[in-house]
Design brief:
Distance between the termini: 48 Å
Number of helices: 12
Number of strands: 0
Order of helices and strands: HHHHHHHHHHHH
Helix content: over 70%
Strand content: under 5%
Shape: elongated
Largest sheet: none
Amino acid sequence: MFLAFLTMLQPALPLPVPWNEDAKARLTQCLKLAATDAPAAAADAAKWQASGGSYFARQCLGVALANQQRWTEAATAFEAAAKDADAARDLVAADCWAKAGNAWLAAGEAEKARGVLDAAIASGGLVGNSLGEAYLDRARARVASGDSQGARDDLDEATLNAPDDALGWLLQATLSRRVNDLLKADKAIREALRLAPGEPSIQLEAGNVAAMRGDEPGARAAWSQVIELAPGTPIADAARNALSQFGAEK
C-alpha cells in the first residue's frame, strides 16, 4: 500500500514530496527503525515531517507511536497522513485511514474508529485482506457502540475478504450465537478452530456453541482445553465457571 499510486485522467494535485527512490528509501529505513527502536523512529519521522516529509513521514510516525502503544497519538498521525494523501490523490490514504481506525480502537475510542474506518472502506482503495481487516475493525467498533446488526453485516464482509483471519470467524460465531443463529455460529466457530485451534478464546467460544446445541461432551472438551492452554488466567476462570454447569471442576 505504501507504493500505491492513483493515475488520474485530469491533472492531479502535486505530491508534497515526490515519490522517488530517495523518498522510498527514507520511508523504508524509517519503518525498519520503528520495528527495532520506536522512539528513535518517532523522532526521525518528526524531523522528516518538519522538513517536508508530509504523509510519508506521518505514516512512519504513526507506526512508531503505535509500536509504543501510544494509540491516541498514533491515530492522530495516521489521520493526518490520510488527509494529506487524500489531498495528493494517493491511494495510500485508504491504508492510513484503516490504520487510524485500528489505533482508535486500541485507544478505546469506538466512535472515532468507526468514522475513519467508514472513510477507509468508502475510499475504494482497499482490496482483499486489507479490506477484510477494515471491515473486521469496523465490526469491532460497532459492537462497542451497540450496533450488533451492523457488526454482523461487517463480519460477513470481513470473513469474505479475509477468510484466513481467525478473529473474524470468532466474532461472527459469538454474535451469531447471541442472536440464536446456531447454524451460522457453528459454521463460524469451526472455521476459527481450523485456523487457530490453540487460541483459548476460540476454544471458549467453541464450548459456548457446543453447549448451545446440547453437545455436553463437546462443550466439556473445549472448555477443558481453555484451562490447559491458559492456566491461571481470567479466560481459564470463565471456562471453569462454564464447566460448573455440568457439575465439573478442573
